[in-house]
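Quick check before the chapter quiz. The format below is the same one you will see on the exam, so make sure you can read both the input and the output lines.
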Amino acid sequence: MRLFYLVLISFCFSVGTCFSTERNTFIGMPDSHLNFNNQNQFYHQPNIGQDSVVIKLAENRLIIENLPKDDILEIYNIMGVKVYNRRINAGTNEYILSLPKGYYILKIGKLTKKIAIR
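Here is the expected output.
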């Protein structure tokens, strides 16, 4: 289990993606893939124009759009501890997260994203 945490943490740091509050962007990710608005909200849309999963985070609401099939949503803190787990339905759904402010790793099937709850 300790090896899993080390791999997870090293993955987070190896991609060179860090959150910068001054610029409201993620460093190391192309701007076309990550979009912000003025209300501390962001969404990730990797393949614009195709049917792809869209993840939106607005304060404590997580919105997942275009999920092709039912799957499991898992959220890990930066130490690699699973803090949230639930089955999610295909299509578009909204979930209320009651997690403390911080950085998390969101996993849906093979899709893995880093999120910041502020």
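If your answer matched, good. The longest helix spans residues 2-14.
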